[in-house]
Amino acid sequence: MSILSDFLFETRIAAxxxxxxxxxxxxRLGVTGLSRAGKTVFITALVQNLLRASTAAKDGERALPxxxxxxxxxxxxxxxxxxxxxxxxxxxxxxHLAALTGGxxxxxxxxxESTRRISELRLTLEFERRKGLRQGPxxxxxxxxxxxxxxxxxxxxxxxxxAQWSRETLEASAAAARAPFAADWRGATLAVAATAPESEAxxxxxxxxxxxxxxxxxxxxxxxxxxxxxxxxxxxELEGSPALTFAPLHVEDDTAFASGSLAAMMxxxxxxxxxxxxxxxxxxxxxxxxxxxxxxxxxxxxxxGPAAVRDLETALSEILVAFRxxxxxxxxxxxxxxxxxxxxxxxxxxxxxxxxxDRLENILRLLTARAIARAEDVGAHVDVVALAAVRATRxxxxxxxxxxxxxxxxxxxxxxxxxxERIDGETFDGKGEVAIFPGELPADPKAVFRGDGLGVPEGAxxxxxxRFRPPVPRLAKDGEPLPLPSIRLxxxxxxxxxxxxx
Length: 502
Ligand code: GDP
Known about the structure:
Distance between the termini: 41 Å
Strand order of the largest sheet: 2-3-4-1-5-6-7
Strand content: 5-15%
Largest sheet: 7 strands, mixed
Low-confidence stretches: 1-23
Number of strands: 12
Mean pLDDT: 85
Bound molecules: guanosine-5'-diphosphate
């Protein structure tokens, strides 16, 4: 291609993707949540369901009944397309689906690799407009953007100096719940003079101790999920990069650090992190989103007890600061979010009997109340749902036997535990199905702050932590998997996309 045609080609691409947005036929959907919340599984299931829904309908399979465009027979076709942003990795949909279904061998099915960095996937939906409105065929282009929720926690850093951030981080690490994890790093950093000469080895040592503290704190039940910098835990493409080789020091606020000192070196790197990592993420990715789903692993927090629940609540409201920022004040000079629909989704609801799904939603509504008030304040539509993007269990009544040893009927869930799962001295081999009592959520959502998480009946084994294998896929007549089974995925789709598919 000549330079001129090269140029025209590039321009055409840019113009066509711009046109999508100008004419209102494009939508950027952000999918976020803290690590292990279920982002990868959600996106894979969402795309697979959309790609396969029409074929399933022809086979007489009813998928996604609440997703109106499909239920009304107006969804003609879904197609994956090349994504518009060449510099962003593509979401590895095919690999993740092959993991979930096992590809050619269902015995190989397993959960896909989790999100570690930003990625993107473009999908087009061809549909018929509803009668009475602007009738006729239409197309909606959806860019799905997957990114770690940890990165949203970095926003407050933009308004903080290095000294301020250092002081707050040191203070936080002294709190009783955190001190045991922070001891090594605190000891090391308090022993270092900020005026000491700059040293790469010292910066590296302190950064490693600091990262180890953040990691250890989060691995524990009383997780410090709320502490930035987000990239220390989710470095993405910056893994091992010098951009992350800094840590807080014991320094005075409002002092200018002598050039050549360790504090000056740390401050420089902190500012570089803000300028080259945090700002570009918010400006180039976050600010371009139209809709957002925030996935929340509320069940894990409920299982871990009230401290974890409170921590999750704080993390959610800190994450959601980002959705309001930019409307006014300093941050609006950097980015201005335009998200108009936000959905909070409690994931992995297939670990519960359906009688508890509404209760899970009520708990999530309570945990996100502060965040929701903020978002509604700026005019975004907000909703809450309990869902399972991939349903790994089915429901059954269990009469007696291994559960209770008495003759009563209990609502149970049945699934194949992951190989190696151990409960009550029994190790599962990943083959046979097991019926378990899933635990019952309290009717009063506030009870979760008092420690009444998932109740287990007396005498029943505590199977709450069992993780299941993905389900064996059912095949359509064309030999490809039918839409993967899910819980309330259609409700999520209707909320996020429904109004654009009228
Ligand atoms: P990410 O870190 O947010 O990308 O999280 P993933 O999507 O990788 O999910 C983390 C883990 O949660 C998976 O490996 C599964 O074990 C589990 N998980 C996620 N979604 C579901 C679901 O819908 N049902 C069940 N049973 N487990 C799920």
